[in-house]
Known about the structure:
334 residues, alpha/beta, 2 domains, seven-stranded parallel beta sheet, two-stranded parallel ribbon
Amino acid sequence: MRLLVLGGTGWLGGTVAARAAAAGHDVTVVARGERSPVGTTLVRADRERDDALAGLTTRRWDAVVDVATQPAHVRRAVRDLAPVAAKYVYVSSVSAYADQATSGTDETAALFAPLPTDAMRTMADYGPAKAACEQAVRTSLPADRHAIVRPGLIGGPGDRTGRTTYWPRRFAHPSNPRGRVLVPDAADQPTAVVDVRDLAAFVLALAADGGSGAFDVLGEPLALGEHLAVARQVAAHAGPLAAVSSSWLLAHDVAEWMGPRSLPLWLTGPEAHGMNTRSCARALAAGLGRRPLAETLAAALAAGGPVVEGAGLTDDEERELLAALDTEADTPRR
Length: 334
């Protein structure tokens, strides 16, 4: 297969390109950087330029994989490449759906109205921007020549957001001699993590004409308590847990989901819980394989790196919070 990966030096794009090259495919990667995965050909280009892909329109491509978020990038790409690509696989996101609260929905759920501008300016634009990118693909290629993949939370080796690395690393490296770890008291909250390697394999299968249309791709749904239990097992953690309420965490300025001073994966409100319970029946029927969460978290732990990488509590922050918890517990109630 002659494959063109737009954005093939990032995490997901790089994994797709590397797997394709290892499988013997002829892989060309388009990116601004200077290095690409082993076995691939790098074409340096800045997709902010209108003519960034002009030099790639003289070849025929069996498939194009595009992971872009900016609508202008995708609109120009399908304009230039639709005439020379047999298949176009666009990686969108479940964030493109307007409703994230309802459980068990599938690819027929309504999307956000497409972002009316060419560029995403803030994270509030992310879902509408992905919807706009999808619209560009759907209107530029026939239904049998494109596929749209909507992943949920992606995890595994290479995750720089910290959302899937913090818990196994924290359990492996507690901040205090007792080995106590602060966790949210939200054991029933739904979570789902798809391994980047499984997602890349599915994208490649679609590129090789494994299916068309839209596909939601999420990991096996697990309650947060189960997720934390798997992370503890992977890290061989035997210390105590300090489970605290969402109201206590918010009152002590702990952020949800990701980012600095956060507890990753924790979400207080049900308005986002449906994001992790979407049906993957269509993708599973098309051949999506999902490895156990333990394998994903173990690989993330084995890859090394700091406990806090994009998300989580630093050692000092966790110790501060544990001390506050102990102090408040010892304070007499009136």
